[in-house]
């Protein structure tokens, strides 16, 4: 399943082609809340379990606030954005990862030390070939000329480093490119992507229903056994974009696996924008782009998870979704503020 909605998960957010969050909310002022059962923390690792019950998520006050309180209420969202800005001060600890004169990623100095035992795969700063300096960046050995050769060689390194250095290996490949749609230099194990700082892409989809003229969102609660962000809130459908599949087909595939949405419905998903973010956490440098979709579902549709990655689903009014974002550690603002419209 895809990226979880968790505080301090995302750092720099850029919104593209998306409609404003407020267009999906009622026109009158936001409701207010006065308390929450969660204490704010500056950061959480993806391995931390921060589980909750649905009562925690939907038991938010629906009391009204007057217009004078609107700016104070919105400040709660701004505070979440500030908490999501993490790691930019540590960028100097990373070296560019260069393939064919293109920067494709960033590798932490400490992780570089783990790679030095593989001199037949990587070239490191200050090393020389043909008498010329390579500069302060990491590159692949010039003997690795084809995408297949590079995929095999780097895959061997990932395998040798194992779970101790790169936890959560999935045997799923991500394309390594300089930008979306650019030529693929090689493919890399998904779990290794943040350790090499490559751009990774995913699809996230809001499934919504209109009830009595009001929009409601189907929300998923991730399985407590998930390696990443167990027990947390997520979109109805979300997933990484692996090598060899386009965005629309990936949405259709994830719809079936994660929510039991048949192709006859999922083909109607509409692209509404994209969110890009970066986050530095130790040796991990996440530089991801999420392609966001909306799908209007029938009132009688009930999602059913088929891959074991979702514990349960709830249909929640958009107003209450906004409250969850505003008041708790279940910080889904980083994704939904762009794609919820």
Automatic annotation (TrEMBL):
InterPro entries xrefs: DUF4743 (IPR031804), NUDIX_hydrolase-like_dom_sf (IPR015797), NUDIX_hydrolase_dom (IPR000086)
Pfam families per record: DUF4743, NUDIX
Signal sequence segment: none
Domain spans labelled Nudix hydrolase: 200-341
Top-level division of the source organism's lineage: Eukaryota
MF term (GO), any: 8-oxo-dGDP phosphatase activity
Functional note: Probably mediates the hydrolysis of some nucleoside diphosphate derivatives.
Family as reported in the entry's similarity comment: Belongs to the Nudix hydrolase family.
Protein name, per record: Nudix hydrolase domain-containing protein
Organism: Phaseolus angularis (Azuki bean)
């Amino acid at each position: 399943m895809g990226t979880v909605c968790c505080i301090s998960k995302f750092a720099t957010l850029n919104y593209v082609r998306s409609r404003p969050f407020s267009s999906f909310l009622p026109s009158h002022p936001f409701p207010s809340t006065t308390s929450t059962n969660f204490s704010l923390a500056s950061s959480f690792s993806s391995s931390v379990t921060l589980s909750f019950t649905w009562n925690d998520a939907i038991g938010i006050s629906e009391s009204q606030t007057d217009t004078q309180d609107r700016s104070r209420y919105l400040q709660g969202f701004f505070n979440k954005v500030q908490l999501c800005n993490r790691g930019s001060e540590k960028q100097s600890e990373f070296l560019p990862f260069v393939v064919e004169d293109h920067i494709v990623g960033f590798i932490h100095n400490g992780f570089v030390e783990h790679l030095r035992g593989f001199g037949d795969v990587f070239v490191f700063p200050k090393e020389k070939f043909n008498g010329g300096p390579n500069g302060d960046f990491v590159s692949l050995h010039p003997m690795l000329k084809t995408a297949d050769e590079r995929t095999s060689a780097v895959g061997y390194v990932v395998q040798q480093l194992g779970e101790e250095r790169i936890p959560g290996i999935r045997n799923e490949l991500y394309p390594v490119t300089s930008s979306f749609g650019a030529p693929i230099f090689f493919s890399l194990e998904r779990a290794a992507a943040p350790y090499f700082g490559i751009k990774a892409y995913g699809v996230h989809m809001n499934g919504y229903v209109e009830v009595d003229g009001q929009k409601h969102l189907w929300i998923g609660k991730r399985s407590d056994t998930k390696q990443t962000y167990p027990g947390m809130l997520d979109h109805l459908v979300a997933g990484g974009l692996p090598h060899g599949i386009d965005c629309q087909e990936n949405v259709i595939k994830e719809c079936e696996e994660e929510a039991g949405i048949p192709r006859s419905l999922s083909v109607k998903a509409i692209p509404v924008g994209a969110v890009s973010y970066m986050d530095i956490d130790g040796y991990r440098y996440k530089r991801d782009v999420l392609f966001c979709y909306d799908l209007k579902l029938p009132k009688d549709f009930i999602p059913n998870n088929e891959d074991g990655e979702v514990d349960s689903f709830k249909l929640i009014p958009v107003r209450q979704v906004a409250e969850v974002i505003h008041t708790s550690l279940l910080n889904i603002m980083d994704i939904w503020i762009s794609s919820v419209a």
